[in-house]
Amino acid sequence: MSHAASSLVVLFDIDGTLVTCHGAGRVAIVEAFAEVTGGREALEGIAFAGMTDRAIVRAGLATGSWSRGGADDEALIDEVLARYLMHLPRALSDKAPRVFPGAVTLVQHVSGRPDTAVGLGTGNIAAGAKHKLLAAGLWQRFAFGGFGSDREDRAALLEVGAQRGAAHLSRPRRETKVVIVGDTPKDVRAAQAIGARCLAVASPHYPFEALRDAGADLTVSDLADPDALAFFD
Predict the structure, then answer these.
(1) Are residues 117 and 199 in the same domain?
(2) pTM
(3) Domain end marker among 94, 113, 147
(4) What are the residues whose beta carbons fall under 8 Å from the beta carbon of 81, sequence distance 6 or more?
(5) How far is 131 from 169, CA to CA, in rounded Å?
(6) Pick from 23, 50, 183, 209: CA 20 to 30 A from residue 122's CA?
């Protein structure tokens, strides 16, 4: 892949791509949901991978009947997310994030390319993303992003990130190429929806085949794979 003549925006997902927080986010959001709604078990059957934080809370609200509202109660969702941010630092201190192999090297490599902007493309709300990446020592490496607090739809938040990256380069969005680095079929499909390419990282949840079948341009076992570096050259 050659982007030598083009401006490039690269957006990294967080959970499952750059780091694992060992379930700290789930612990915090379940606790917040239980405190606000009384429904501690509502999120048990929901697979969080690839979902935005707001969509997770909305899905939980859709599973039961809550005295204060339902899945369309935006104020209730806001309240759960605010409470989530109160619980997240403690959960992260109990379950310190681990940075995945190759993640720092790849971010450094891409950041060193000319005419390239490196940011985040994540379903985490921005404040939650900051908590997680500060705990992992990575927050300062990203100057911008598209977050779950920008848009609930994953493709839409990635487009926000792409536009911010283009602005960071002082280039029109239409003149920039975009690469999404993620770990779920949702990342792959959202990348396709905004005309971006996708570098996908396989995991026990989504193995090579699932990501390849979703249409990933390249799938690697982890970001230390030399093919991940070569993808940007």
Answers:
(1) yes
(2) 0.93
(3) 94
(4) 32, 53, 54, 57, 125
(5) 26
(6) 209
